[in-house]
């Protein structure tokens, strides 16, 4: 099981994104963001550090259909776990799915952030674009996407939040992250910038 990812360090030639990734094997590798998300989902699901829990995600779906059409067996949520906005959490590697007029967008949850200047709470998410590895924000409670990490949040318009797909290891039966022996340490919490 992987902790959060905040850079591309360790990705080059890593089987999650290369030799064992179906996107790479069908000439749709990085910088294809679906290739990145598929590999990150797997990296986060691996429980033994040796490429266990290979995803059962369908690799022929456009981004805007991942949430609706991925096979059963993965928990889907439209809200984070937790009792209130101060205790919200999602496992690192969960996929956030968006619809848009341009095929949608996918990103992987990595950690929480409280942005003091605007008093907003975000999930920081990773994605991969033509420009390489990137971190963006999802506003907790609204699902709105924001760029500009780590600086001032800039809203990314044109995206409609669909929901989250949770990696196998975290299944619906796990309601408390401390059951994994990780507590809230799966998130980096930044209480003020």
Number of helices: 3
Order of helices and strands: HHHEEEEEEEE
Low-confidence stretches: 171-193
Percent strand equals: 15-25%
Q: Report the radius of gyration as a whole number of Å.
A: 16 Å
Shape: globular
Sheet with the most strands, sense and barrel status:
8 strands, antiparallel
Structural class label: alpha+beta
Q: How many beta-strand elements?
A: 8
Give an overview of the whole structure:
The protein has three helices and eight strands; from the N terminus they run H-H-H-E-E-E-E-E-E-E-E. It is α+β, with helices and mostly antiparallel strands and about 190 residues long. The radius of gyration is 16 Å and the shape is globular. The model is unreliable at about 170-193 (pLDDT under 50).
Give a quick precis of the structure:
This protein has 193 residues and is of the alpha+beta class. It is 11% helix and 24% strand.
Walk me through the topology.
Blueprint: H1 22-25, H2 33-45, H3 66-69, E1 76-77, E2 95-99, E3 105-115, E4 120-129, E5 132-139, E6 145-147, E7 154-155, E8 160-165
Antiparallel strand pairs: 1-8, 2-3, 2-8, 3-4, 4-5, 5-6, 6-7
Features:
alpha+beta, 193 residues, single chain, eight-stranded antiparallel beta sheet, disordered C terminus, 11% helix
């Amino acid at each position: 099981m992987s902790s959060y990812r905040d850079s591309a360090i360790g990705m080059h030639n890593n089987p999650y994104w290369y030799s064992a990734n179906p996107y790479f094997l069908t000439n749709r590798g990085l910088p294809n963001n679906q290739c990145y998300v598929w590999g990150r989902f797997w990296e986060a699901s691996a429980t033994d550090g040796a490429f266990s829990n290979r995803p059962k995600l369908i690799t022929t779906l456009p981004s805007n259909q991942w949430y609706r059409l991925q096979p059963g067996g993965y928990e889907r949520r439209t809200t984070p776990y937790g009792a209130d906005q101060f205790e919200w959490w999602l496992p690192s590697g969960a996929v956030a799915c968006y619809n848009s007029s341009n095929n949608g967008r996918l990103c992987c949850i990595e950690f929480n952030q409280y942005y003091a200047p605007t008093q907003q709470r975000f999930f920081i998410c990773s994605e991969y674009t033509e420009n390489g590895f990137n971190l963006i924000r999802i506003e907790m409670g609204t699902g709105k996407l924001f760029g500009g990490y780590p600086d001032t949040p800039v809203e990314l318009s044109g995206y409609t939040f669909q929901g989250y797909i949770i990696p196998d290891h975290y299944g619906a039966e796990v309601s408390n992250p401390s059951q994994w022996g990780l507590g809230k340490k799966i998130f980096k919490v930044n209480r003020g910038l």
